[in-house]
Write a structure and sequence with these properties.
Elements: H1 3-17, H2 19-37, E1 45-48, E2 53-56, E3 62-66, H3 75-80, E4 82-83, E5 86-97, E6 101-102, H4 106-115, E7 119-125, H5 132-142, E8 153-155, H6 164-182, E9 187-191, H7 192-199, E10 208-211, E11 226-235, E12 244-249, H8 253-259
Parallel strand pairs: 3-5, 5-7, 7-8, 8-9, 9-10, 10-11
Antiparallel strand pairs: 1-2, 3-12, 4-5, 5-6, 11-12
Helix pairs in contact: 5-6
């Protein structure tokens, strides 16, 4: 064998045995596999590997919502996580439910989230069988907002066995009390189906946050006053040891800033 061939074979062996070569092969394989996996899917609704979910790409302001279900959260890790400019800007944090339940992680999350640079809002899980005014008073006893926070939110997604009209009556009582005390209209959160069946046409002057999972677009008409879309309940976020809901804001960073309490 000539010296030239020996040198060539030695060079090839060095390349094949190099960790950089296998790193390149692995990277190429991963990219190719993602391309194959995304065939036939909306180009603007792709997989973000770090978060382990598909995301609608046209929304630039993203956030999560959390409760005791997520356990103890390392908010600095949450803030530092990023993939292709997608990062956590805001978080809605569960504070209360009904008239006796305070989320055991609320005070910690309410303190540590903003400290890490996350813009936060507090929410109440609404129970239609209980007086809306009592629930609002209980919520306000627990939550104190400041300039720069998101408006308060009420989560209404169950009837608890009462008629829709009763639910709407108590929800109206809740909303009016919050507005009277804070001078700020709360955000209403609901699942898309629950909203369509029980709320549409009754609370159209309120900002809406709707849950509609695993879809490239939120299936509502252009007149629906929605600002937040919960598009997945299975995201993986650094600093959180459980899956978490992922949300987008319907607007740019300037319109998001205008929503905050001033």
């Amino acid at each position: 064998m000539s010296v030239r061939w020996k040198v060539a074979l030695a060079g090839l062996a060095l390349v094949l045995l190099s960790p950089f070569y296998y790193g390149y092969v692995l990277k190429t394989f991963t990219s190719t596999w993602r391309w194959i996996r995304d065939i036939g899917h909306n180009d603007h609704y792709r997989i973000y590997k770090s978060f382990n979910i598909r995301m609608p790409e046209k929304y630039k302001v993203c956030g999560i919502d959390v409760s005791f279900y997520q356990g103890k959260i390392d908010w600095k890790l949450v803030k530092d996580m990023s993939e292709d400019s997608v990062h956590i800007t805001f978080a809605f944090i569960k504070a209360t439910e009904g008239v006796v339940i305070v989320d055991p992680y609320f005070q910690r999350n309410w303190r540590e989230g903003p400290k890490a640079g996350i813009i936060c809002g507090a929410y109440h899980f609404f129970r239609p069988k209980i007086s809306g005014k009592w629930q609002a008073r209980f919520f306000l006893q627990t939550v104190k907002t400041e300039k720069g926070d998101l408006p308060m939110m009420v989560d209404v997604e169950e009837l608890d066995g009462v008629q829709p009209a009763i639910m709407r009556k108590e929800l109206t009582s809740y909303l009016k009390y919050i507005e009277a005390q804070t001078k700020i209209k709360p955000i209403i959160y609901s699942g898309l189906k629950f909203y369509q069946d029980n709320l549409t046409g009754y609370f159209d002057d309120y900002t809406l946050w709707l849950a509609h999972y695993y879809q490239p677009e939120l299936a509502v008409n252009n007149t629906t006053n929605w600002k937040f879309w919960q598009h997945s309940d299975k995201a993986r976020v650094n600093g959180i040891n459980h899956v978490v809901d992922f949300n987008v804001f319907n607007g740019d960073s300037l319109s998001f800033t205008k929503m905050l309490i001033h």
